[in-house]
Design brief:
mainly alpha; about 230 residues
Amino acid sequence: MRKLGLVIYRRYGTASAFLGIFGAVTVADVWLPARDQSAVVAWASTSVANLEHHPVGCLLLSAFIAGGAVSAWPVLIALALFGANRAVGNLRLAVVCLAGHVIGTLVSEGIVAYRVDAGLLPVSSRHLLDVGPSYVVVSAIVVALAFGSWPARVAAAADLAVLVFGGHIFAGLTSLDVAAVGHVTALAVAAVLLIWVRRARYGRPHGTRGAGELGRSAQERRAGRPS
C-alpha cells in the first residue's frame, strides 16, 4: 500500500493535490450559508481591488473556487492534469500551471486597471468577480498536448473543446474581456514554458557533453580504454 502511494505521488502528485484541494474547498463552500459563500467568493476574486489589498491570498484561493458548473470542474481538471503530470512530473507541471494562473490573472486584470484609469471602464470594474481553475486547466492542457501519451492528448483535446465550445473561454476577446484575455495569456505562458520543460525533461541536446564527461573521456583515452 505504501509503495502504491509512493507511485501515485511520483506520477500524479501535483494533479492529485490540486484536485483534492479543489474538492475540499468545494465541499466546504457547499456547507456555508449563501451569504458566507458570497463573501468568500468576493474575497477570493482576483479583481483589481483585491490584487491591490491581498494579492497572494486571492491568487491562491481563486484557483480552487469553481466558476460556473461546479460538477463539471473535477472532470475537466482530471482530464487535463493527470496526463500532463505523468508526462512531465510534479515540479514542472506545478511551475507551468502556477505561472499560467498568476500571469494570466495579472495581465487580464492589469488591462482592466489601465482601462479604468483611462476612463474606458467604470470604476465598478475594479471589483469584477474572477474565480475558477480554468487558467490552471488550460495550462495543463498545453503540457498534455505537447508531451502526453496519445490517450492523454485525446483527453486534453476533448477538455479544450469543452472549454472553448461549451465554456466559451475566448468569448469577448476582441473587447478585451477579462476571462478571454486571461485564458489566451495562460495558454501563451504555458507554450513558452514548454521550452524549459523540454530541456528539463530531456537534458542537454544530443551530442553535447559536460566538462566532467570530457575530462573522463580524455583520461580513458590516455589509459588506452575506449571513450
